[in-house]
Amino acid sequence: MERKHECCFSSPTLIAIAVSLILIAIARILYVLYRSGKPLRPKSPKPVSTLIVLGSGGHTAEMINVLTVLQKDWFSPRFYIAAATDNMSLQKARVLEDSWAHSTGGTGSPAKYMQIYRSREVGQSYLTSIGTTLFAIAHALWLMIVIRPQVVLCNGPGTCIPLCVIAFLFKVLGIRWSSIFYVESIARVKRLSLSGLLLYKLRIADQFFVQWPQLQKKYPRAHHVGCLM
Amino acid sequence: MGQIEESARKMVFVTVGTTLFDALVRAVDTNEVKQELFRRGYTHLLIQMGKGSYTPTKSEGEDGSLAVDYFTFSSSIADHLRSASLVISHAGSGSIFETLRLGKPLIVVVNEDLMDNHQSELAEELAERKHLYCAHPQTLHQTISDMNLDSLLPYPAGDATPVARLINRFLGFPED
């Protein structure tokens, strides 16, 4: 009888603690969702550390076009991430950075280049992909802890998803506030890509850009910016 | 003599990109497509066939027919695009925009065998805007015989400044 009483006494406390923790977490997530997508109003703007996720092929080409017109002094230092299987993208970023360094005489902090493991390669079995996925997530987490970017620029495909989710979690946990910008590929005219759809629907992207007016009609929170290519 | 031959050379360049697209290679290798191209004044057909298993028939192009040659991959795709008078390409955005930037007439052939066929969206949209022709492997000969290259409109260069402006505004950076 005594024992039962004791047990009944402590469990409501535990439940109360658990419930309030969950409520705090929900409140925090709601606050982050509310605050995300609202423009920042810094009194005296400072350069922001910027993570640029390079997709491969056409995705990288579109991102390079965006980088070319950004004022690089504001987006500094810059970190580039590409898939470990993609040899070309980081090379293209290096060419761009070198051309900037030449024109400014090599001032400013140098860019850093990193590779990320993909969770699953084409044709890989589902059993082994559980292991590789966990490894890829751990690797993405490690990179994000090292970089802790204030701005994330990405335009698909899937490589950017774990990085964006981690950036969002950093916002929730108060580790680092970041602004996430996603540009949907020019190849998407009528439907969003899976990566785009996830970042749009889950409201992880602070600003979401599309290149065709049809998509903007379908996804009203997106900004139509015209063709990058 | 060589000079005259060079100036009379009108090359059609076919590209399947980094993977394979046998249905396209097979389609351009049919007699009806080759005859149609020759009738329209093209003299050479060069096919980049990628990893495909279908090998087109080579031809020297004597006795009034199209000269046909092929290769699997090359690092000088850009040179072939530049020297082409007509490009027939798979629907990858890289090939499409590289060709449009060079101002070359382009027929994009959509690969119906691809699982997630979002690629046709881009080709169809650009065809609607009269920047290129969009075809399927079975309709390629029809597209070639019906096409009027003078009606194609040049593709305006892309512009990333609207994205940059919105990003700057969001982050509160001064706009110059």
UniProtKB/TrEMBL annotation, chain A:
Pfam family, one: Alg14
Keywords (A to Z) from UniProt: Endoplasmic reticulum, Membrane, Transmembrane, Transmembrane helix
Transmembrane spans: 12-34, 126-147, 159-183
The protein, known as: UDP-N-acetylglucosamine transferase subunit ALG14
Source species: Turnera subulata
Compartments in which it is found: Endoplasmic reticulum membrane
Family: Belongs to the ALG14 family.
GO molecular function, one term: N-acetylglucosaminyldiphosphodolichol N-acetylglucosaminyltransferase activity
BP GO terms, sorted: dolichol-linked oligosaccharide biosynthetic process
Record-linked InterPro entries: Oligosacch_biosynth_Alg14 (IPR013969)
Record's bilayer topology term: Single-pass membrane protein
Gene Ontology CC: UDP-N-acetylglucosamine transferase complex
From TrEMBL, chain B:
GO CC list: UDP-N-acetylglucosamine transferase complex
Superkingdom in the source lineage: Eukaryota
Pfam families: Glyco_tran_28_C
Gene3D superfamilies: Glycogen Phosphorylase B
Chain ranges of the Glycosyl transferase family 28 C-terminal domain: 11-163
Any one biological process term the GO annotation gives: dolichol-linked oligosaccharide biosynthetic process
InterPro entries documented for this protein: Glyco_trans_28_C (IPR007235), UDP-GlcNAc_transferase (IPR052474)
Entry protein name: Glycosyl transferase family 28 C-terminal domain-containing protein
Residue ranges that the Swiss-Prot or TrEMBL entry lists as coiled coil: none
A GO MF label: hexosyltransferase activity
